[in-house]
Amino acid sequence: MPLVTAYHRPASLDEALDLLSAPKRVALGGGTTLNADRELSDLEAVDLQSLGLDGIAAAEGGWVRIGATVTLDAVRRCELLPDSLRELARLEQPSTLRTLATVGGLVARASAESLLLAGLLAHDARVELAGPPSDLSLAELLAAGLPRGSLITAVTVDPSGCTATARTGRTPADVPIVAAYGRRTDGFVTMALTGVGGHPVLVDVYDPTAGLEPAEDFRGSREYRLHLAATLTARAMAELYP
Amino acid sequence: MTIDVTFELNGAPVTVDVEPHHTLRETLRRLGMFSVHYGSDSGETGAAAILYDGRLASSDVILAASADGHRVTTVESLNVSPDLHPVQTAFVAVGAFQSGYSAGAMILGTLALLEENADPSEAEIRDMLSGILDRETAYVKPVEAVKRAAAVLRGEDTEPFAPLVLEPLTDGYRPAPAGAGGEIPDAPQSVPRLVPSREVPDMAVVGKPEVKVDAVRLAKGNPAFTDDIEPRGMLYAKVLRSPHAHARILGIDDSKARAVPGVHAVLHYGNTPRVKYASGGQSWPNPHPYDQVSFDDRVRHVGDRVAAVAAETVEAAEEAMRLIDVEYEVLPAVFDERFAMDPDAPKVHDEDDTTHICDPQRNLVHHMEAQRGDVDAQLASAPHVFEQTFRVHQVQQCPIEPHISMAWLDSDERMVVRTATQVPFHTRRMLAPLIDMEIKDIRVIKPRIGGGFGAKQEMLIEDIVAHLAIATRRPVRLELDRAEEFYASRTRHPQTITFRTAVDDDGRLLAQDMRLIGNTGPYGTHGFTVQIVSGLRGLTSYNAASKRFDCHVVYTNIPVPGAYRGYGAPQAEFALEAHMEDIARALDLDPIEFKRRNWVKVGDEMDIAPHLGERAVAEEELDEYPKIMSSGIEECVAQGMREMDWARRNDAAWKAPADRPNIRRGLGFAFCMHGTAIPFLDMGGCSIKLNDDGSFNMLIGATDLGTGADTVIGQIAAEVLGVPLDDIKVYSSDTDMTPFDTGAYASSTTYISGTAALRAAEAVRERLKARAAMLLEVDEPCTIELRDRRAYAADGRSVTLEEIALDSLHWQEQEQIMGTASHVSPDCPPPFAAQFAEVEVDVDTGQVTVTKLVMAVDCGVAINPVTASGQVEGGMIQALGYAHCEEIVLDGDGRMVNPSFGPYKIYRADEMPDTVVYLVQTMEDSGPFGAKAVAEIPKDGVAPAVRNAILDATGVAINDLPFTPERVWAALQAES
Question: Which of B55, B68, B902 faces A99 most closely, judged by CB atoms?
Fold first, then answer.
């Protein structure tokens, strides 16, 4: 647990943004990342739980709008979303943490290994921000980072299409070393990979390793990750086009 | 700044003052919810899981302030009467708890799941359990418990949980005849398959699936563990640890730390006596060298102790730690045992006051040699000689309860240490000189332990809390966090093992030569004995006329290795069983047949065993070599082959499924042989006394880590005394109260402490018979029989044990009927096992998926088949982690890069292979009611069986652990 020196629970977005404009204040979603980090110190937590961002609803054009404080467990249970995406939410965290971890926290953390984030990317996710209000694609946000002074309020996804997942890990439920999540809509495929960059990325299915510069660690060298990127993309494609 | 927080706790509102940084876990424990346990700060162990607004959630990562307005439920909510809730009852009935450290979380998760879905699938159950890491059960029996609870809550009848009794497939000595076996037994995998021996009589309590004696307290989450008391005025300790793998401390300035409000003591080399010791919890005199001191001016691994602080709060202690100014002279370090003896390797111990290092200039702690026959001659003349080198890695025991100790001076100024230890008596003895107190002035109490697996066979932190308690005259508590548990407690020794084996044309071994370099890290604790066990296990499993063990144990700067369940055997058996497999393939022999031709059988000598170990003797000093007196290996192999459908090894369509072109399947086998206790060394004591109502108090020094030792030893006494297990009230262990016991290690507890209990019970039985004869006016007490809480005369007349108790305590010729006994054994009867593994290998990615593990084990008579099978299930999955996914990874500076669960991967409930256990009975005459050991042998065979299954699937032999995807992929690439 980091050394949190003050706790705030704003009742409105404006209040939250105002609180977060001060230094050393951080947004607190489910706490699974922030509260687990013992290296942090001298922080003030701004708890987002009372902002009313915890709803999932059908949106215009058949899309689904997921509030920023919706938990991964709620995503797993949501019948508006495709089974494949719900399964990624299940895989993202074990049972005792997915009931706390939030979609907003997932996006803000932008973990390179996040399966669900890859899934959201492949489903053309857009991210709604407050302060100032804006709406940008998840891919843009991951590439540019969360704009300073902004707060994620929702993620919208297009649930349509058929999907395929291919992943490689040490064990069946391990965080994959590399994973591919593909979505086919009207003959067009969107393919997202984890484990090959600083965050999940969309790749060209015909040249999935182009431009990738995976960081190596003890689970996978650069060469191995590139091999997996190509292999798993091909495997997902084969499933999308049986 | 404190905050008033109000939430609903177990149905009632509570308001509590919290600091902004307080977690809900800390707050709940402050409110007396002791079922909520610490496993880590990041919540991934699930030991502190609660229901948060009805959903299972780790309270480690919830700020207490965030809980304001929420609904919180802990398992204490069920404890409204002495009775158990049906969910608790289900967990107890199937033996789902070993240590029970995460019992509350499992029960709460079950409640939430069943409230939502009365008939969950197994996948849904496993998903619920996915957030509760269990290092003990392999989740087999917890899953069964959830199913059973669901059935009960649906109003269905359930059968008592009991083993499936099977007919033997062999005559006990020869292989099963061709075609023997028939259908694979159909039963849930949680049900142990029991193959009885005709030599074993049916008994009333022994051999029965009795409920554990501590089950109720665990199911209720009652305060039972070290941390579940809070002495008034307790201080919190923290340890400043080295950031360097090797450095000299040139100076420490603790003035700023001492000035932090609430800090009471800061200890380091400058203000603590320099007393040399070896930290391994072993019998007196601990194996040399004594190469540690409580605080040194030299650090030898990242995480080594530098200083310790005691303060009013954890936060103050941490703040003080940050303010200790340490000046280091960083020294070069060495990590790989293969280079530690190089002339230019850094010297890990060059201090003057450590003696008995074999060659400090070469970092050589020990050099052990043992030989029978003429190995070199055999190797020179044999028709076939094979040589292979294997490398095994460093892993951690990962008890979900980290090391925790507290110490205080009692009203008599005696030191009381309440600690999670496997070795309370060794700890007391070893602690005394470090704190300059006499043994008689120290009391060590072992409460329930949340798993140990060898990590707690160590005096690891007890000296720190004792020093601080003396310095502050206040109770002091120290708990390691998860990262410290990884890099600052104990681990398994990495080794480099080379086997050379000479074989004749008939496939019989002529000679085996085992060379081993063991990496004992910066300290020698257990370094001698672990490598000795490697030699024992590597060279006693198979017969050969000539054998040689040549072992170098070296210092390096890795986190400290020590005892870990299996204790050198898993390393050696990986190398041995892989080597034997490859020899069989090279000679075009069936691997099981080749191994059978050579493995030791009843009557064979364990020919190199007496020449190894703490009590090693020379050949000329020996009257005779110990022999194998019981072995059920043939039955184990037969049952395991049937369960695995072993013929699939020759089924090309199964091995390369047409619909999954990237998958290859394979089956692997490993022969396993372990030991049962250390002969002439391990000793256990037991004391039993009769109470007014005919029940008994049993005091044992044995240390139940969750293994069920208290239950099993209680069953042994109950069988002798003719009472149900519930009439034996077991207390263990407390150095002031209970008899001596060497502790929980070396697969000794049932065999050694159980025999002590047997003898103590026999002594009590003799007095009971004498008193019964007096009451029944029978001349010959020996004709009296005890059963069903009564003493029967031959003519059928009887008195109750209560009547005997009241008479003997209150009425005539009063006496306290009691018995005390101890036991040490000259024997070390080996349990045997056949380990099988089924794998799928993705040949495009290298990912190995282990789909099934089967162990058929001859542990003699299983005193309790449910607890015994639980030991095997849990042991196999720990062993699978060793083989497959667990590894301590250090960077170039010796810093562990993965000191948390996840990066350090242990198996969780939703990714388990099928796991099936067979208990093949044999009658071991030297054991209590025929028992041998069962706790460690499950660790031995999984790695080689998986390795051999990968070989069967792909043709690729991999000689390094673990079988991670890139390693397997690289091997496949190299092969192709």
Answer: B55
